From TrEMBL:
Region (Disordered): 1-26
Cofactor(s) the record lists: L-ascorbate
One of the Pfam families matching this protein, by short name: TauD
Name of protein: TauD/TfdA-like domain-containing protein
Keywords of this entry: Carnitine biosynthesis, Oxidoreductase
């Protein structure tokens, strides 16, 4: 049983729509997104649990909470601090050292990720990111699905 199911803490950060902001690190963009830290699926599994659909959390960016009453705000920040503590525990981390030519592909909404400090002795660092437009992907899928559902004339 996960922290989300075993405590009310998960529900406290799975509800409020938090404002996330990213300026590209250099002010060259202004990306704003509203979502809960923990997005649960709308349907329940066989045990009556709503599976985790996405996780969005960063100790360094935006994440402005919406206006809430004092009791809800207190519970929200207590749960957020607890989640942060769990996420930063060494036993919950996978540490990897990449060699030239290696690649890691992951779903940004399902994996919390970070990097350690880059030391001068580490050498040159080169990282290439790529993103999939989920809306475009689902739109293409839906078009294909509908096209296949139509009878041939």
């Amino acid at each position: 049983m996960s922290w989300v199911e075993s405590t009310s803490g998960g529900e406290n950060i799975a509800s409020p729509q938090v404002r996330f902001e990213n300026n590209g690190g250099d002010g060259s963009s202004a990306l704003v997104h509203f979502s809960p830290h923990l997005e649960l699926d709308t349907s329940e599994d066989a045990e009556g649990i709503r599976p985790l659909k996405a996780v969005r959390f960063s100790a360094k960016s935006g994440q402005y909470a919406p206006p809430m009453d004092l009791q809800t705000t207190t519970k929200f920040y207590k749960a957020r601090r607890r989640f942060s503590a769990l996420a930063h525990e060494p036993k919950n981390a996978v540490v990897m050292q990449f060699k030239p030519g290696e690649i890691l592909v992951f779903d940004n909404r399902r994996i919390l990720h970070a990097r350690s400090q880059i030391l001068p002795t580490d050498g040159e660092r080169w990282v290439q990111g790529a993103y999939i437009d989920r809306d475009g992907l689902w739109l293409a899928f839906e078009r294909l699905r509908r096209r296949q559902a139509q009878p041939l004339e």
